[in-house]
Specification:
With about 450 residues, the chain is of the alpha/beta class. It has three domains: about 10-20 and about 240-380, 3-Layer(bba) Sandwich (FAD/NAD(P)-binding domain); about 40-125, Orthogonal Bundle (Fumarate Reductase Iron-sulfur Protein, Chain B, domain 2), CATH 1.10.1060.10; about 140-235 and about 380-445, FAD/NAD(P)-binding domain (3-Layer(bba) Sandwich), CATH 3.50.50.60. Helix content is about 35%, strand content about 20%. The chain has 16 helices and 19 strands. It has helices at about 15-20, 30-40, 50, 60-65, 70-80, 85-90, 100, 115-125, 150-160, 180, 190-200, 220-225, 255-265, 285-295, 315-325, 425-445, and strands spanning about 10, 140-145, 165-170, 205-210, 230, 240, 250-255, 275, 275-280, 300-305, 330, 335-340, 345-355, 360-370, 375, 380, 390-395, 395, 410. Strands 4-3-2-5-19 form a five-stranded parallel sheet, with helices on both faces. The chain has a five-stranded parallel sheet with strand order 7-15-9-10-11. A hairpin with a 2-residue loop joins strand 13 (about 345-355) and strand 14. The chain is globular, with a radius of gyration of 23 Å.
Length: about 450
């Protein structure tokens, strides 16, 4: 087939091109590279990088341990605060967090490569099968965790270390949540998400039940009656609709589903992509979808965002990465309608926007972008099915600083809670802290619930 053929199809590239395009974005440092990178750290006494980390990893300490030839000790320092430190090293927006705060991050210098150093240490421990934690004596207490994503896994691991029995319920066939299904393939190659899940679960005392969904197969009240405590790490299940004419046409897809399908594909050549692709949105999902569309062989990929570059939720690094891959980023454009030809997507009509008196408004000026595939990445929604009387705030679960919800014995964390920033590292922190709060409650003398029938 000719490359210029319109429509959505698979196999646009050669096998070698697929391999090159989806190789590791930031390959692991070797020993010499890690020592050189670690040597750049000033080991600041006030550690602004540590303050900027949502999980409060002792960054100067773990880098010093690398510099002294102790990567396993470094990994323990990381895992003490973030048991999913390996994935966070790959997907964290370090350019906006720890590396942004690095005192070397100046106009003349680049910051210490904290993320890549963290990966170097955690990979060393995982490759060696090195475990740093043993379970405490069994407490006889049982905790239900809903969601096997970053928040749920972090909570389950910390609770298991304390000697509690944990059962994780997840609706998907695999554990990992967004780490498994929702991030760009080139950020976590070689099935790393599942390797990390195996590492976390190897502590013991954690059972994972797949294919069970809150609100469909059980309710929160069911769990409350069967377990001593419940942690909800259920993420965001729905995708916002455009509510535009033509949205149901073939070729209009959810970016989340596209990323998931690509993540689970055994052969990238089997994933179909359009020749001209438009992605609607300005967050990380939009960037990941756009870049991967380009890597699959789409000839023209355009991101349309209704506000300006400075308003995009995606970091400047990610925006620049998209541009470097050939993605066109267009701002101040809102979708108006989807145009069809022969029952398929042919173009999208957009309307220019502006901020007037502090409010976003359309200007009346329109344009048309030819496309045969459109990905929607305009945000996800929270499904409150099965949660009963749990108090919500702005459409998500309301929690206190310890992760407690409005119901006794129920905690929550991750993307499903109000005030979250939709980051893996923040979800890990919330799961870890909720587990500590649950442990304190149980240690105070609460009686275990009746065993499950």
């Amino acid at each position: 087939m000719e490359r210029l053929e319109t429509g959505i199809r698979a196999g646009r590239l050669s096998p070698a091109e697929y391999d090159a395009n989806f190789s590791d974005l930031h390959p692991r440092l070797d020993k010499h590279e890690a020592l050189v990178a670690a040597d750049r750290c000033y080991f600041c006494y006030d550690a602004p990088c540590m303050t900027a980390c949502p999980t409060s990893i002792d960054i100067p300490l773990f880098i010093r341990q690398i510099s002294t030839g102790n990567p396993l000790g470094s990994a323990k320092t990381i895992f003490d605060q973030n048991i999913l430190g390996g994935m966070c090293a790959r997907v964290c927006p370090t350019e906006d967090l720890c590396e942004q705060a690095c005192v070397r991050n100046t106009a003349e210098e680049r910051p210490v490569e904290i993320g890549r150093l963290q990966r170097y240490a955690t990979d060393a421990a995982m490759d060696a099968g090195r475990q740093f934690y043993a379970r405490a004596a069994a407490t006889g207490k049982r905790i239900a965790v809903v969601g096997a994503g970053p928040a749920g896994l972090a909570a389950a691991h910390r609770l298991a270390v304390k000697g509690h029995e944990v059962v994780i319920y997840d609706s998907k066939p695999k554990s990992g949540g967004l780490n498994e299904y929702g991030i760009a393939t080139y950020k976590a190659v070689d099935d790393f998400a599942q390797k990390e899940v195996d590492y976390v679960l190897s502590i013991g005392g954690i059972e994972v039940v797949h294919g069970k969904e809150l609100g469909r197969d059980f309710t929160l009240a069911d769990l409350q009656s069967q377990y001593d405590a419940v942690f909800l790490g259920i993420g965001l299940a729905g995708v916002n609709a455009l509510r535009l004419e033509g949205e149901s046409l073939p070729g209009v897809d959810d970016a989340v589903d596209f990323i998931e399908g690509l993540r689970q594909a055994t052969n990238k050549a089997n994933v179909a992509i359009g020749r001209r692709v438009v992605v609607l949105g300005g967050g990380m999902t939009a960037i990941d979808a756009a870049i991967q569309a380009k890597l699959l062989g789409a000839e023209e990929v355009t991101i349309c965002y209704r506000r300006g570059k400075e308003h995009m939720n995606a970091s400047e690094f990610e925006q620049d990465l998209a541009a470097s891959k050939g993605v066109i980023l267009r701002h101040w454009l809102a979708p108006k309608s989807i145009l069809s030809q022969d029952g398929k997507v042919a173009a999208i009509e957009v309307e220019y926007t502006a901020i007037v008196d502090g409010r976003l408004t359309t200007t009346g000026e329109t344009g048309v972008i030819a496309t045969d595939q459109i990905f929607k990445a305009i945000g996800q929604t929270f499904d409150a099915s099965g949660l009963g009387a749990l108090r919500m705030e702005t459409g998500r679960i309301a929690i206190d600083p310890e992760g407690k919800t409005s119901l006794d014995g129920v905690w929550a964390g991750g993307d499903c809670v109000f005030g979250g920033d939709d980051l893996t590292v923040s979800a890990v922190a919330q799961g870890r802290d909720a587990a500590e709060s649950i442990n304190r409650m149980l240690a105070a003398g609460a009686q275990p619930a009746a065993a499950v029938a």
